[in-house]
Amino acid sequence: MKPVNDTFLRALKREHTDYTPLWLMRQAGRYLPEYNATRARLGSFMALAQCPEAACEVTLQPVDRFGLDAAILFSDILTVPDAMGLGLSFVAGEGPVFAKPVQDEEAVNALYVPDPSEKLKYVTDAVRIIRRELNNRVPLIGFSGSPFTLACYMVEGGSSKDFSTIKKMMYARPDLLHRILDVNARAVTAYLNAQIEAGAQAVQIFDTWGGALADGCFEQFSLKYMRQIIEGLTREADGEKVPVIVFTKGGANWLEDMAACGCDCVGVDWTVNLTKARLRTKDAVALQGNMDPMVLFAGEEAIRREARKVIDAYGDVGNGGHVFNLGHGISQHTDPDAVRILVDEVHTYSRSKHAAR
Predict the structure, then answer these.
(1) H or E segment at 117?
(2) Contact present, 247 and 254 (Cβ < 8 Å)
(3) What are the residue numbers of the active site?
(4) Which one, out of 136, 163, 164, 259, has a CA that is 20 to 30 A from the CA of 68?
């Protein structure tokens, strides 16, 4: 069944829309006081993420507050390696940490594809609850990290500034890294398909660290495995197409390659000009993005001005194909009122552009 507001899904399919739909990466998060209250009640990030009812609550908070055009499942990209038994925890001031980093042949050989119906059941339960509570208002986006991005955390043991450990493995023992990436790709495929079966109506692959790769390495160690995932995904559910979005932060150099990987939409960061991106991808896919998240700290006039610039850069909307988003996740220090202003401007200004065609 189509959502009452299916503008987001139609834009991904490059169909005509009455306005440009909008959602924000990390839209359910620490910038919202209601999110902080829910997290405090649960006691920790992981306790919140692993409680389906609470995950539903925070997923719906920004949709209810701002009138966004899509909800995105509240979860974390590291749920998959955590389900592999690597021992994920979040350390104050450090971020995610794995108790068992994957840095040698023995650790690589121990990796396996977790059954989503067992160790990741809390995620699919959350998807089902969110779909029910959304009551078909807007579509629900499922997601996962890309195989390479997951591998960065798995090999480094947590966050990294230079990715020295995984890059050493990539150049010295590429066979080991390829084995990790293959397991990750199969795990992500099963995980996203489980989300789709549970009710996700579109999915996004977050290739957060693909842009850290050298040219030539991106195709071999990141895009190859995202393509493998896309080829294995369920692309239709309940008689409707399930669109796939690929987002590589810092991936401007490979736009054409990403557009040809089988996805329906390429997300771009704020370094990309949307006019040029459309020319480079030849309108073969929808585009998602791409305002700099820092604009939201610059006041109402700047927010409205920069939002219009993004919409104008995309240009002719005759065939749809643009989903407005930030070029990366929203900062935890953002004033929620800035988001309200952004949503108002995108919806109002884009509606006039769509009506004028």
Answers:
(1) none
(2) no
(3) 26, 30, 39, 76, 153
(4) 259
How far, in Å, CA of 245 to CA of 229, rounded? 12
Q: Strands, DSSP E only, in the chain? A: 71-72, 88-91, 95-98, 140-145, 202-207, 236-237, 240-241, 244-248, 265-267, 286-288, 322-323
C-alpha distance from residue 105 to each of 121, 180, 181, 232 (Å): 29, 10, 14, 27
Domains of the chain: 7-355 (3.20.20.210)
The H or E element that residue 229 is part of is: helix 224-232
Residue 305's Cα: distance from chain center in Å?
25
Supply φ then ψ for residue 222, to 5 degrees: -125, -60
**Residue pLDDT, tens place only, 20-39:** 999 999 999 999 999 999 99
Contact 21, 11 (CB under 8 A): yes
pTM above threshold 0.90: yes
Of the candidates 158, 184, 16, the one whose C-alpha atom is nearest the C-alpha of residue 91 is 158
Write out pLDDT tens, residues 228-278.
Answer: 999 999 999 989 999 999 999 999 999 999 999 999 999 999 999 999 999
